[in-house]
Amino acid sequence: MLLDTTLREGEQSFGTYLSMADRERILRGLAAVRVQEAEVGWAGREDLADMLALSARVAPGLAAAAWCRCRPEDLRTAATCGARRVCVGVPVSDAHLARRLGVGRPALLDLLAATLAEARALGIRHVTVGMEDASRADRDFVFAVARHAAAHGAHRVRLSDTVGLYTPLEVADMVRGLRAALDATRQDATAPRARRVSIGTHFHNDCGMATANALTALESGADCADVSVLGLGERAGVARLEELAAALVVRGRANLDLAPLRGLCAHVAQAAGLSVPRHWPVAGRDIFAVESGLHAHGVRRDPSLFEPFPPALVGGSRRLGVGRKSGVAAVAAALAELSILPPPDALPAIVKAVRELSATLRRPLTPAELTGIASAGSGVPERYRTGGAAGIALLSAPPVSDAPPTGGDDNDKPRHPRTADQGRARTREA
Fold first, then answer.
1. For residues 354, 359, 361 and 364, what is the CA-based torsion angle, rounded to 10 degrees?
2. For the chain, which has fewer Cβ within 10 Å, the N-terminal or C-terminal residue?
3. What pTM was computed for the model?
4. Cα(176)–Cα(147) distance, rounded to whole angstroms?
5. What is the DSSP code (8-state) at residue 317?
6. Residue 131 in 3-state DSSP?
């Protein structure tokens, strides 16, 4: 299961300010993808009640949660706003306990028990206990916190890699160990509650492993993984919704609709003032564009030879281009698609011209440019010929992409100016 935190973790990212219209589009997009759960805000956020109501109205099938600190008063605030599902942040590393909370391990366990008791008294139906900074915490204490949470009524415990240090092998070992510890607690006749407690994860991407860690966790026994659109979040962000969703669907592990993802990514990029690199997995505009001769030949024979999934699965489309890396077969095939059939002895010269112009322009050629090269010397107007600087300048318009917009490439600038009154309250969990 995926829990999207674009509207909590994502909104914490530096310089990101989403309007209510943006949030509504994100909620509708998550519902269209069939994401099961989302954090839509935090206790103390001025518009938490509005966000919970908005989620219930536009995405009724999405389980909406509010994030809280490990304090009974935060749960009371969330419940007053209408929250019936909460995620409680609990630091578990000694560094956070000493320097952030100023408490020891026993005091933390007492505070957690009191907070969970308050949740029961408030009638909150689902409580996740997020164990923050787990990757730098003592493993035995992490397990002790998880068992304590289970014994006092938590429905889910969440491993939070606050600074993105876990590796997939460490994650697999940690999740399996945590599952064994929780199952042992479940068999304890003295525990107040015998239900099965699920395992969630929250991986940051500081070392570029968040999505891999999330997938590994799910394949190692975790029940839920936190994600956000484009990985939006603090610093380098968290596991990316579009990547993890695609991996799960391709592996037959999830029933998600990937087709709306590119549009959702494009909107989040625009709203957050981000640029989506053209090679970005799932959302990049050029991920189904092929130029090199070997790949183009293979894709024309059978696209599955060089594609992990068909473009339509994620709402994309395929493009085959010719340029400096193209050979005779690729150029001939591209010309045939334009209903141009030059004599075989003319192809080497055409390929040479294609490569030279592409190298000059530093990009693949457009159909018009390819047509101009093939027609050169055949009575077509001079403006289509490729000899000299004037011809190159006339043929230098950028190629037209048939892929959906994805917020631009690396050189784009943010589209929305920032204003001082767009600030929002921040939470403290990773």
1. 60
2. N
3. 0.83
4. 14
5. -
6. strand
